[in-house]
Design goal:
This protein has five helices and seven strands; from the N terminus they run E-E-H-E-E-H-E-H-H-E-E-H. By secondary structure, it is an alpha+beta fold. Helix 1 crosses helix 2 and helix 3 crosses helix 4.
Length: 151
């Protein structure tokens, strides 16, 4: 595993063997539908450390993504973001974001004369948006199957 670090950002290159190992771990964890309740890490011959649940969940997500061949970027997100940052998080324009705010589809609040959003609200909107897209895709696939339009 090679790592390149610049300031607070780091890029880790995952080898094909590491991706294969991640797939094996992902498959093992997939057999346990409820997911791991804990991950224990061995340190040396005698010492072990149980990861906190939140960190264990993060590791499982990373292993899953790496196993699927995804590029993963990890960073911290501030609790409160500007409209420009929120628009970037949603991959939409700032005017489109402001329309969502005006329509009260995403909660916001004012700090002086500036509109601010909580990251958790922006991410919740994004998750809901992705779920709507998945649902629409499933419905489209069902229609294609019903009409015999599939190849």
């Amino acid at each position: 595993m090679a790592a390149l670090q610049r300031g607070a950002r780091a890029t880790v290159a995952v080898s094909p063997r590491e991706a294969e190992q991640a797939r094996a771990v992902r498959d093992f964890l997939g057999e346990h539908q409820s997911g791991p309740t804990a991950i224990t890490v061995g340190v040396g011959a005698q010492e072990t450390l149980a990861m906190p649940r939140e960190l264990a969940e993060l590791v499982v997500k990373l292993v899953d993504l790496v196993g699927r061949g995804c590029t993963v970027t990890i960073g911290s997100i501030p609790a409160e973001v500007t409209t420009t940052v929120a628009a970037s998080m949603l991959d939409i324009s700032r005017p489109s974001l402001m329309k969502l705010v005006r329509e009260q589809l995403i909660p916001s609040h004012k700090v002086g004369s500036h509109t601010r959003l909580y990251s958790k609200d922006v991410l919740a909107y994004r998750r809901a948006q992705l779920e709507r897209q998945r649902k629409a895709f499933r419905e489209l696939r069902a229609l294609e199957e019903e009409w015999g339009a599939l190849d």
